[in-house]
Amino acid sequence: MSIVNLNHVTFKYAKDLPPVINDQTLSFTQGTFNLLTGPSGTGKSTLLKLIAGLYPAFTGFLENGSIHVANQLVAKLTPAKRAPLVAMMFQNPSEQFAMSTPREELVFALENLQVVPTEIPKRVDSALAFADVTDFADRTFTTLSGGEQQKVSLAVIMALDSQVILLDEPFANIDPEARLFLLNRLTELVHDHGKTIIVADHDLADYQKRIDHLFILNEASHQVESATAIVAKARFDEFATQHQQQAIALPVADATPVFELDHFSVGHTTPLIQQDALQLFQQRLTVITGANGSGKSTLFDALVRLQPYFGSAKWTSHEIKRLRRRTYAQRVSLVFQQASSQFLNITMAEEIAFSQQHQLTPDWDKARIADAVQQLNLAGHENQVVYSLSEGQKKKLQVLIMLIMGTETLLLDEPLTGLDLKSVHTVLQLLHDAVHLQKQTVIMITHQLNDVAAYADLHLHLSTKQLAYEATL
Amino acid sequence: MNPTLLLLLTLLVGLEISFTSVIWANVVIIAIAIVVMLRYRVHWLTFVRLLLIPLIPAVGIWFSIRYFSTAHSVHFAWVMSTRIYAYAFLGGLFNAATTTNATLASLEQNGHIPTTFVYGMLGAFNFVPKIHSEVAIIRASARMRGVNLHFWSPQLLFKAIVAALNWSENLAEAMTSHGFTENAQRTHLKVLRISIRDYVVAGITLVVLQFILFSHLP
Question: Which residues cross the membrane (chain B) (predicted)?
Fold first, then answer.
């Protein structure tokens, strides 16, 4: 029996924009585990939010069609009536709670549903236990990690007892253990409680044995198609095939260190990295790899003083926490994982001009910038508002404006996300030139490993709280 | 005391001393506030702050009335100075006796304030730590581009507003997804009531205040 039905749905963000979802007819069967995949920015979130009844209520415009959950028109239900039918776990763990602690949030949700007060504590306790969050039910959300917050989100959904559970890239910011725990719990919800799950994810690892159906969002037709067994197998195989590892050098004994860690630890509540001793080297392109949520970004935050650390972390023999922020930022810069954090102006041309105005070395002149803009396929977007660029364009612009600055040490957090293969090569070539022509130091976190070995000098891998150099990449 | 009743009482007391000029009333209010705050074991630094922050306006108004007003009234100069301190200590009392969460919960249940307002405020308060970290990121990002942003810089404000708009949208969606319906009926795990004792205390406070205000004390 199908529980979610879309009937000729066409959805646009504005009347004069092309549709994000076009003439979509689709149904999901009760008691199944469904996975929705497709390139980023093509409308996976939009589809989930349509089913959740959040769109078009919050934004956009439903041009045609209707969406039913359990034979009820979602758009017509009040949130309190809708929540027991369909609930959602959001991509950003920290932006989905109105109250300050998990227990308060669960009580808030149940009060919204007008559950009788005597019933509330019982439902709260069993939901907390199911999601394994009882131990920190009364801690404030700001002290919880991304993984812990997503577990709380599951507890809320459990308390609401929703029939259909939607998850929008729920594991993007969480550690591998939490991801596996949540996947196991979700599987249990399907098999033992008859819930219907639709999860949007671009990372297909660990799903193959759990799911009943794979759906693929087709970028060209703006439609979701159910994958045939052959297509599904190909997709999973593509994901399972290990990336072809290539040999890469290990650090040589006489290299000059740029960063030195000594009995260093960093983390939000519990340490993510505990490192006895480690050196990172000058004038090298070092690649850092490791699982989601293992602490790579936190390490960078500590290195640029956005996060306190314990023990010692030195930059060219100076203890980082004792350096003046203002001067240090001119020597060590970060290309943020969230591209919009980098931007200070409105249009692309203004961003580039701003960097040019404050650049530290004259390496990047007008001609070279124009050339890079061309190569990065950014030409023609000069007067576009930076926030309206696609995720891939934002990433490329971000890398470019930080390269123009000419900072001697450049840290990059996932600069290759959402880039097509040609752009990946262009960006890597620019970074390679920065190291080998301008004598800069580049340290880069990336998940995207294809062809990186050809440009990188060193490879650091983070696992079980330790960073170590590896001879392959 | 129930936060809604306490809020009404402090507002009423504040309003009344604005329209009367009795030094003793202000002094008694300050004294009662200090006693209540001591009972709630307020940190001594809070007292220091409450004494220092109103100091400049209090002294300023004393001198301007004493020397530069048409009547040169010493009495009125003292009325105004002590009034400023009375306001500050009324605020201190309210702050010591209740919390933001308790006040908002009580305003929802006892004050029948629209739930949209109550939970909007709660959500906003819980976002304060996020705003701090966002501002730190924006400033770091600017430093890396060779610019030092101060808290009054328009660029910092613009970026903070962009971030806040984004969060508010996300939060509103999440609250909706958790069943929150604007201004709809909700149940309450903790039912808050205004006790008879609270009404009696509030009543006595107001009667005593009238007595002080209208018995020709200076």
Answer: 6-38, 50-69, 75-97, 199-217
Nearest CA in chain A to B184: A112
B176 contacts in A (CB within 8 Å)?
53-54, 57-58, 79
Measuring CA to CA, how many Å separate B89 from each of A259, B3, B30, B83, B97?
52, 17, 6, 10, 12
| Rounded (10°) angle between helices B74-97 and B55-68 | 160
**Which tens digits make up the pLDDT trace of A335-364?**
998 888 899 999 999 999 999 999 999 999
Digit-coded pLDDT (tens) for B78-128: 999 999 999 999 999 999 999 988 999 999 999 999 999 999 888 888 888
The pTM score is 0.82
Query: Is-contact B174 A52, C-beta < 8 A?
Result: no
Is B184 part of any domain? no
Closest Cβ opposite residue A358 in set B126, B147, B185: B147
Tell me if B144 and A305 make a contact (CB, 8 A cut-off). Answer: no
* Full strand arrangement of the beta sheet holding A441-445: A332-335, A409-413, A441-445, A285-290, A458-463, A466-469
Residue A252 lies in a domain: no
Report yes or no: A375 and A422 within 8 Å, Cβ to Cβ: no
CATH code for the domain in which residue A289 is found = 3.40.50.300
Alpha-carbon dihedral sign for residues B125, B129, B132, B134: negative
Tell me how crowded residue A456 is: count the other CB atoms within 10 A of its CB. 24
Size of interface A-B (CB pairs under 8 A): 148
Question: Are residues A307 and A202 part of one domain?
Answer: no
Asked if the Cβ–Cβ distance from A95 to B171 is below 8 Å, we say yes
Q: Are residues B17 and B45 in the same domain?
A: yes
Say whether both B135 and B58 belong to one domain: no
Chain B contact set for A156 (CB, 8 A): 178
User: What are the two backbone dihedrals, phi and then psi, of residue A200, each rounded to the nearest 5 degrees?
Assistant: -100, 125
- B130/A80 CB distance under 8 A: no
> Per the domain annotation, does B218 fall within a domain?
no
Range of A185's domain? 2-240
Number of domains in chain B: 2
Q: Are strands A318-319 and A310-315 parallel, antiparallel or unpaired?
A: antiparallel
